[in-house]
Amino acid sequence: MSQPVAQHSAPAASGRTGRRGHGNPWLTLVAVALGVIMVTLDTTVVAIANPAISRDLGASLSDLQWVTNGYLLALAVSLITAGKLGDRLGHKPVFLIGVVGFALASAGIGLSRDIGLMIALRVIQGVFGAMLQPTALGLLRAAFPAERLNLAIGVWSACIAASTAAGPIAGGLLVQHINWESVFFINVPVGVVALVVGALFLLNARGGDRGSSFDIPGILLLSGMLFTLVWAVIKAPSYGWADVKTLAFLGAAVVLLAVFVVRESMAREPLLPLGLFRSVPLSVGAVLMMLMAFGMFGGMFFLTFYLQSVHLLSPVQTGVRLLPMMLAMMVASPAAGGLISKVGPRLPLVAGMVFAAVAFLGLTRIGVEAGFWDMTPWFALLGIGLSPVLVAATDIIVGNAPVALAGVAGGLQQVAMQVGGALGTSVLGAVMTAKVANVLPGHMKDAGLPVPTPAQVDLMKGAISQGVAPVPANTRPEVTRLLVRASNLSFIDGMHLAFTVSVGIMFAAALLSLLVRAGRQVEGAAALI
Prior knowledge:
Blueprint: E1 12-14, H1 25-57, H2 61-89, H3 91-111, H4 115-143, H5 146-177, H6 182-185, H7 187-201, E2 204-206, H8 216-239, H9 244-266, H10 280-310, H11 315-343, H12 346-363, H13 372-399, H14 406-446, H15 454-464, H16 477-512
Antiparallel strand pairs: 1-2
Helix pairs in contact: 1-3, 1-4, 1-5, 1-7, 2-3, 2-4, 2-8, 2-14, 3-4, 3-7, 4-14, 5-11, 5-13, 8-9, 8-14, 10-13, 10-14, 10-16, 11-13, 12-13, 12-16, 13-14, 14-15, 14-16
Membrane topology: Multi-pass membrane protein
Domain Major facilitator superfamily (MFS) profile: 28-521
Protein name: MFS transporter
């Protein structure tokens, strides 16, 4: 085992010029928040632009799926490697390269007139986006003292919530009044501001030795494992969870993970030191981040269909309906950061998971005709519940890692969120579809319609699981009304079951939260290898 390295209070930082504001914690927060806002905005506005992209570029449904999945795959695969790059070369230059690359890729997407080029640029955008998120957390840890890191993460989380809330509304307005290209061009001015603020005020914090290797075999194995895992989760709803292709990708992910673990245990300078996971709080924090994302992204997935397809709201109106949840997160995240600094993460985590469980339980009571005030209290409670989880789980992961591995820990936090979100939409989607297939014949019979055969149910369940009633052309209005009613009731039953599963996940996470403790300033990485 390597000898422990000398203790120090912060990561190495270069470029201390004494310039006014250089290294200021709050200016650091402004810079990294702007960078991450670009990534968050881009994730939410693209879904709004998809119909216009399809019309303008002649894109198929498969093309549009790749516009989203290519970005998500590149992002997930690159996160830990990008975090390692920041630890070794410095978080500031990697962050600024990410800002420039993301903004240029966004501009290229807006200028592209070919769907293939657009998909390629989305993949490039995902790679540069991966440089922003883990390095942002590394920069925050370097700039803020330990007792104020929770507050910084809380404000950072509030910025993410704000951009998430603004995404559907801003995207809808831009697409409606300008064009779909504008939802990508908007990243350019945001990127310019982030670049200027970052170049002027960020310190070049880094942890590792500049002469250290980058563990190329480890990078390839981890990238392959994450690709096969995320690909399997993304494609499982269309392949089927029991399909040989899904099982093959999941099996490949397991094999690559096993080889990666063996490689990292033998490597002198591993990409992801396995000793990190000796910290029970850090390991639990990663699991909690996955469970939080499972519920949040899975819930948002169905609520969007519910509002747009069942209630027939526009994207902008849908964004307005979801504002209570996002506004609650904007207010609760900084407050949660301050509370966690005073009482530790355990109580806020448990309370947050319980609040989220109660919110999902309340959402199982909303029906087809639910109004704004039937939904708003549960949306707000969900935002209040998720906020301390996002802040505390992030602090547990980053705070319990050595300072020298802050970037890797930031990458781990983001990977946990990406994988959890993908699992939430896919697993709950499978639950939804199975429930729809089970209840649809009964609802059609109750409506006085012919009971569909199993083959007909298989053809109908996919559309109904997205809130769309599969009404054949030239159907009589009275039959259309009954079919829409039966389809909506089937969707509601499926959504209620998915939310019930989320209730169980949140309560299980509340119990798991009892194992955590506050992040501690661990300085050396060598003892973990």
